[in-house]
Design brief:
Nucleotidyltransferase, domain 5, 28% strand, SHS2_FtsA, 16 strands, 359 residues, single chain, globular, 11 helices, Dna Ligase, domain 1, 5-stranded mixed sheet, alpha/beta, FtsA/MreB, 3 domains, PilM, Putative Type IV pilus assembly protein PilM
């Protein structure tokens, strides 16, 4: 039996997840073993020059391509197929309800008709896709369909970056969807398997922080705020008279004066915790909810010492820094010590890599 099960086991084409963010590019490659357990095969990060990407827009194409090439070389991957993500700000998404007996080509017609009603630019300039989510809970006999639309040039920007670096784009996702996919595996490890828990997921990036409030795999609320790790770099530069580049390098290398924690880091953590608590208050005002069960943190700034404790203190809510590779086997090509420090930065790229097994 073991021979036949290995012969007929589903094989997935190799695929890497590539997250192009404002401060770095990140790569993840995953595999599944015979018991459908994940193995992290490769993970790597390569920083981007300041200004290469601004507000999700690629401003310095060649610099980003060069960074992706360096990333591929650093990771050692031979895989060419890649899943990429657009920033959520570049995508309009909407859930619609359609009759459950429609064929795929009929759904396509309905989706295009619906898209025309809410997309603020010409349909010929739009990249449009949809996903059938399943039966509608509120309308028996109907099905829920998720529509996603973006300007075609935004999609082409990501595609051309990947192709110029020698990769073959197979999937264009949305960064928030990829993050939610990776976080979902970890939410299932919470009490009750995460069932019916209200979870606030914060991804703290370089220049902005995104918030999704999740329950049972659905996003109930989302919000972006313009604060992130760059504010810490700016505070370091102001306090010590460094240039922005010097401040960033010293922050990355933990090469800062003895009074850094008290004079710069602790005030920054206090301010960031207050921003996250304020974001939760917006959610509470907009919905019938008055609390969340867990706060999950991801992104390069999430692991700052003292941040979890300060957020817990301000919100009276359990707070956890996410490691998207928790519970996975770690391949021989991965440096575990370095991975532990960088793990929260990989949430989106991990979700993109997981798309390999959902095609």
């Amino acid at each position: 039996m073991s021979i036949f099960s290995s012969m007929f086991r589903k094989r997935y084409a190799p695929l890497i997840g590539l997250d192009i963010s404002s401060s770095s590019v990140k790569l993840v490659e995953l595999a599944l073993d015979d018991q459908n357990r994940y193995t992290l095969v490769r993970a790597a990060i390569e920083p981007l020059e300041k200004g290469a990407i601004t507000d999700g827009n690629i401003e310095k194409h060649d610099d980003v391509v060069d960074a992706v090439r360096r990333l591929i070389k650093k990771s050692g991957t031979k895989t060419k197929n890649v899943a990429l993500a657009l920033p959520s700000s570049a995508v309009i998404s909407k859930k619609i309800v359609l009759p459950g007996d429609l064929r795929e080509e009929e759904i396509e017609v309905q989706v295009e008709t619906e898209a025309n009603q809410y997309i603020p630019f010409a349909i010929e300039d739009v990249a449009l896709d949809f996903s059938v989510l399943g039966p509608s809970l509120n309308s028996p006999g109907d099905q829920e369909v998720l529509i996603a639309a973006s300007r075609r040039d935004k999609v082409l920007d990501r595609q051309t970056i990947a192709e110029a670096a020698g990769l073959k784009p197979q999937i264009i996702d949305i960064d928030a969807f990829a993050s939610r996919l990776a976080a979902g595996r970890l939410i299932e490890r919470l009490p009750r398997g995460g069932h019916d828990l209200l979870v606030a997921l914060f991804e703290i990036g370089a220049s902005s922080t995104s918030m999704q409030v999740l329950r049972n795999g659905e996003t109930l609320y989302d919000r972006d705020q313009t604060f992130g790790g760059q504010q810490l770099t700016q505070a370091i530069a102001r306090h010590y008279g460094f240039s922005q580049e010097e401040a960033e390098a010293k922050k990355r290398n933990a090469d800062l004066p003895d009074d850094y924690t008290a004079q710069v880091l602790e005030p920054f953590i206090e301010g960031m915790a207050q921003e996250l608590a304020r974001a939760l208050q917006f959610f509470f005002r907009a919905t019938p909810n008055s609390k969340v069960d867990y706060i999950l943190l991801a992104g390069g700034t999430a692991a700052l010492p003292g941040l979890v404790e300060k957020i817990t203190q301000l919100t009276s809510t359990a707070c956890v820094v996410l490691n998207p590779f928790e519970g996975m086997a770690i391949g021989d090509q991965v440096r575990e010590k370095k991975l532990r420090l960088q793990a929260p930065s990989y949430l989106t790229s991990c979700g993109l890599a997981m798309r390999r097994f959902l095609q």
